[in-house]
Amino acid sequence: MKKDLLDDIFFGHHGFVTDLVKQILESRVSVDEAVVIGPLPMMKRASEITKKYNLKTRVSLNSIMVDATGMCGCCRVTVGGEVKFTCVDGPGFDGHLVDFDELMLRQKRFEKEEKITLKNWEREHC
After folding, report:
1. What integer pLDDT is reported at residue 11 of this predicted model?
2. d(CA 50, CA 96)
3. pTM to 2 decimals?
4. What is the Cα–Cα distance from 93 to 96, expressed in whole angstroms?
5. pLDDT, mean over the chain
């Protein structure tokens, strides 16, 4: 992609990065692959957009990894209907095959406990 085109598209943009992904793909410039790293909702939306253009898309699932052996199951994710463990099978996966809805629900599993822990930490350290 030409550098001046990228500068024109990105300069001063206010909004979602997925809007830029769509704009780049609609511009018909040659793109071989998308590599998406960030929050789960953004990766989900970017993968939905790139799928419409049949663009190979890799996502990096930097989920909570406790033991790095897959035994704890904290980083379990369904990819193409198969259970994978981010710490041993990833963290890069085909974004069109990741079950983002299931993954986002799993990431909220301990939300209540995380808020309590953060509040206790702030009380002790701030």
Report:
1. 64
2. 8
3. 0.78
4. 9
5. 86
Q: How many domains does the chain have?
A: 1
Q: Which domain holds residue 41?
A: 32-125
104-115 pLDDT tens trace: 998 888 888 888
- Is 24 among the domain residues? no
d(CA 103, CA 105): 5
Reduced to 3 states (helix: H, G, I; strand: E, B; else coil), residue 108 is coil
Neighbours of 67 (CB within 10 A): 13
Does residue 108 lie within any of the structural domains?
yes
Q: State pLDDT tens for residues 64-113.
A: 677 778 788 888 999 999 999 998 999 999 999 999 999 999 888 888 88
Q: Which alpha helices (DSSP H) does 1-126 contain, by range?
A: 3-10, 17-26, 40-52, 86-89, 100-107, 111-125
- Domain assignment present for residue 68? The answer is yes
The pair of three-digit structure tokens given for residue 76, joined into one six-digit string: 């379990």
In a domain? residue 13: no
Question: Pairing state of beta strands 76-79 and 57-60?
Answer: unpaired
